[in-house]
């Protein structure tokens, strides 16, 4: 068992199983780079402020860098009795450079240290996620560009409603993701703040320069209140919320992919590379990736609720409860990164079954609104037209017809102003073409929307 950094006032030490419960090293070791980055900035500032000598600072930095190198070569063994990443690194540093390593913790506490690590980690993770979303959106635009003329049924209540283009449908997800990205960017304002120098809770008696460590670490600002600096986890809750909302968006898309690829719909065929088989039913090709993405919302929601509950009623300032902020965030970041990557690959390799879509959209009543609009064009009030079309649809269902197949004589028995041009008018592609209102499904409106979306992506890169 290693000697505790805080062992001075203790007569006995916890047993190994108690240490194991207390320890976070098995998950916070992933913060090693951030911890070392924070320590190098802290040591540099201590030296510039003449709190430690520049030779001591150089020794410390050299020691930290050698630890970092060995960590990435898998050459470091961490100890549970040293609790967390901070005390493990400090122990290793003193082992490597001697007593001077003990000067690194001057004017610092693990409380501002872990807060700094988490701010650095969250900032990097959010910047990565913004890039992944951008890439996914670019793929959505690409695929949409190929399907401005691909007509499919648009649904409400999962009942066929009106024909739309596949591009129009897919682009909806572009805009959801655009809002997620904008939320992440906004959250960065609150993530990009340095808590370093708050020390345990009240600041420090040493003449430190918090603005220098802020600058060295690339943060935009510092926390104005040292208690707030060490106890704030709002930015993690916010990040978890955005991750979760983005996962919820992906789960909606996943659900569509699952339905579209079903035997019942056959709108798309997923690539073998993004599907799996069954161990008993040889014919099966399952959309497991989409199902997993849908399913993983359970865990990201869990992580968000878990941290909300951890923070509820927690008094100022640091409490060990806050150690519970990490695993959920790490897992949520990992989950969304994976989901975005998989989803992008899945839609880039799927085949759209245009023929099936073409036939599907002809075998429904989703052109019923067109018939009503046609009558409105003949100066019949919409309510009256709606009533007439309702009767036509009822007749068609009872007599096994679709609107495009009903003979003109029958139409005229429902309303004399229906003429032969009705058949072109009812064509699904004509219905789509007519919806030219901004944001509508016509080719021109969808092209306009895609251009706007592309311009937004161009501005970013
Ligand atoms: N492992 C701890 C955490 O993640 C680091 C801070 C410990 N601070 C303390 N006063 N025990 O929260």
Automatic annotation (TrEMBL):
Reactions performed catalytically: 2-(N(omega)-L-arginino)succinate = fumarate + L-arginine
Residues in Fumarate lyase N-terminal domain copies: 8-302
Pfam families registered for this protein in UniProt: ASL_C2 (PF14698), Lyase_1 (PF00206)
Top-level EC class: lyase
Keyword Cytoplasm applies: yes
A GO MF label: argininosuccinate lyase activity
Localization, UniProt: Cytoplasm
The UniProt record lists the keyword Cytoplasm: yes
Domain Argininosuccinate lyase C-terminal, residue spans: 365-433
EC number: 4.3.2.1
Annotated keywords: Amino-acid biosynthesis, Arginine biosynthesis, Cytoplasm, Lyase
Pathway info: Amino-acid biosynthesis; L-arginine biosynthesis; L-arginine from L-ornithine and carbamoyl phosphate: step 3/3
Domain of life, source organism: Bacteria
InterPro entries: Arg_succ_lyase_C (IPR029419), Argininosuccinate_lyase (IPR009049), Fumarase/histidase_N (IPR024083), Fumarate_lyase_CS (IPR020557), Fumarate_lyase_fam (IPR000362), Fumarate_lyase_N (IPR022761), L-Aspartase-like (IPR008948)
Protein known as: Argininosuccinate lyase
